[in-house]
Amino acid sequence: MLETSDVLVLARLQFAFTISAHIIFPAISIGLANYLAVLEGLWLRTGKIVYRELFFFWSKIFAVGFGMGVVSGVVMSYEFGANWAGFSRFAGSVNGPLLTYEVLTAFFLEAGFLGVMLFGWKRVGARLHFLATVLVALGTLFSTFWILASNSWMQTPQGFHIVDGRVVPLDWLKIVFNPSFPFRLVHMSLAAFIVAATIVAGCAAWHLLNGRRGAGITKSFSMAVGMILVAAPIQMIAGDAHGLNTLEHQPAKIAAIEGLWETEKGGTSLNLVGWPDMQEERTKYVFSVPHLGSLILTHTWSGEIRGLKEFAPQDRPDSTIVFWSFRIMVGMGLLMLLLGALGLVLRLRNRLYDARWFQRFALAMGPSGLIALLAGWITTEVGRQPWVVYGVLRTADAASPLSSQQVGTSLLIFIIVYFLVFGTGIYYMLKLMANGPDGDPAAAAQVDFVKSIASFDRRPMSRATDPIDE
Amino acid sequence: MTIDLPTIWAGIIGLGVFLYLLLDGFDLGIGLLFPFFDREGERQVMLNTVAPVWDGNETWLVFGGACLYGVFPVAYSTLLPAVYLPVIAMLCGLIFRGVAFEIRAKARRTQNLWDLAFVMGSGTAAFCQGVILGTLLQGITIVDGRFAGDAFGWLSPFSVFCGLGLLVTYATLGCGWLVMKTDGDLQRRMRLLLKPLSLVLLAVIGVISLWTVLGQPAVAQRWFGGHNFVYFAPVPLLVLACVIGIFRSADSGHDARAFILMEAVIFLGYSGLLISIFPNIVPPTLSIWAASAPRSSQIFVLIGVVIILPMILSYTALSYWVFRGKVRHGDEGYH
Known about the structure:
Order of helices and strands of chain B: HHHHHHEEHHHHHHEEHH
Distance between the termini of chain B: 51 Å
Distance between the termini of chain A: 73 Å
Largest sheet of chain B: 2 strands, antiparallel
Helix content of chain A: over 70%
Mean pLDDT of chain B: 87
Strand order of the largest sheet of chain B: 1-2
Oligomer: heterodimer
Radius of gyration of chain A: 24 Å
Number of domains of chain B: 1
Number of strands of chain B: 4
Radius of gyration of chain B: 20 Å
Strand order of the largest sheet of chain A: 1-2
Low-confidence stretches of chain A: 449-470
Low-confidence stretches of chain B: none
Structural class of chain A: mainly alpha
Number of helices of chain B: 14
Largest interface: A-B, 75 and 68 residues
Shape of chain A: globular
Strand content of chain B: under 5%
Structural class of chain B: mainly alpha
Number of helices of chain A: 15
């Protein structure tokens, strides 16, 4: 018995570790791929060199992130079977087909056109190249679509019945478009765009702080801060709608997020801070605001929210974790709102590139998109516990018939390999960012070369400069 | 034999795994040949020949895994725990290999380390894949739809030998690829390597075939029972002919000959594997029918495969076409 639970804990730790490490890279890839498509589109439209410089600069960082996303993703596609045989046997008939559609519509598309996008400048025309970039960006969004359909089905399953202890799909439309899917899809796609925006803004801010004022730096700073101004409020609205949806379908998750134990009559207060204690069944050191919980979660003055005590102890998610992971996510979101708003004020006063305190703020906010993303995923995944398929299959019944030595060893290996390899990869991405869009002579040479061959002779900008490497 | 959904699906996954062996085979093979070539220029040329295509190639591995997961979940959830440690090691190998692709060209002080990561990553992945195939051939204990064997059940002289066998196979394939994609001195030295590689390859194929037939009565029955050998005899004969062709292409012949013949060898060897185990998906007891997901799952994904797979094959071919021709030292645009 002890043995089984050890395996379960180790397998859960391993999944949490490998998926958290993985999601960082796809999030960056989704955001940057779409940014790159916008940059190349703007370049084709306006002929302004600054967009092309930015394209080359960010495409190198994108390439490294994408490669790391691929290899950490291969791990995921085999981990389901290796560590979660019980889950694969039970629900493979739903999650497997959704993953296969992700491979078919997204992974091959991205991989098939990535080569042309990164290395094909000399070999294809400008339009075909742009098409390749757009298809790579589209591929990242298809990927988001399918993997979130899969995850959302595990959160709010429907469209199936169970025969002989296995899921039999009945209605694929219902499976894909399950109740939480649209909310999660919008929330995650926006999150990926915000991840890219905060990184681009942080990178540009660092160069501005170091006294560089190149066109690429100011342009990317302006674009990224503008993106945050637009995306952060929309994300807040999307997150609010997602919360209402969760309250409807996973009320125990909401109770855990809010550290709410009793069902309060006549209006639920909101615990702003506190420490939910699963043993004592109460939230300690609490500071709460009356009626605010009802206002936020039901959009009414006195809406009722069921407390954790209404759910049997074995059906409760860990409130201590999700209470705080949720608050970290929301805190980051509020800071992003502030960043966007301050950026707007400075822009209106023509001081966007001069206010050093704002650049320091933007630099500090560089990782905020990723922090919010991870905190959000921790909230929704830990909040789903103790279920792996909500209300249908318990996580405890999902593990593989392995020994704790096997799972422990592989966990150790993954931790060492990931820190070594992805640690270096991230260091390398940061180093590329530090070079800056105007700082890399190789990129500049490439730009000039492309300029000379690209079919833009009718564009005044490209006619102005002669090729340097002939 | 009637053609039903599980049979069609066995064919599709069979095709996916075959394409993986073909395509990622030469990527991994390049990693195995890496140590024998000069660090400054040659290795980067070798890498550049596959830089635009390697992650597309690796995607076939994900395709195989995802299809198995969705279409034969019982096979997926019994095979992977059975080969747990080799799978983990393979994944780690692929991580080192993949990241080395991106970083090697840009590293200065740590280039040695990335070369090592590339070689060891490719080697580990290739070896573990061979071990997994060997384990599959020797069979896995399944009770009540669950893996019921030992943590080290995969470890046997046979599976280890299969691991070494796949190393030689990939190295030969990678060598053939590089003869096709390079020229000058590098190509000349690649051609020279074909001779010893093809000899070792022939020996390895012979040993694995004999070992399987002698060690597995069921496989022997499949190959030699009734008139079967008459039908299956072309497989070993064609393998022999191809390997001789590869050996001879070291001295003369079209640049692409060794690569194409080596692809044929892999096709034949892979056919031999399928002949040996079909209609089991996890020998000795789990058949494709017993491993199947519900019909609704198999149909749902089949629709996608029928529509999308031809598109994938087309644009993959397009990508290879865009990057056709020789790769030389100092070519721009690869990193």
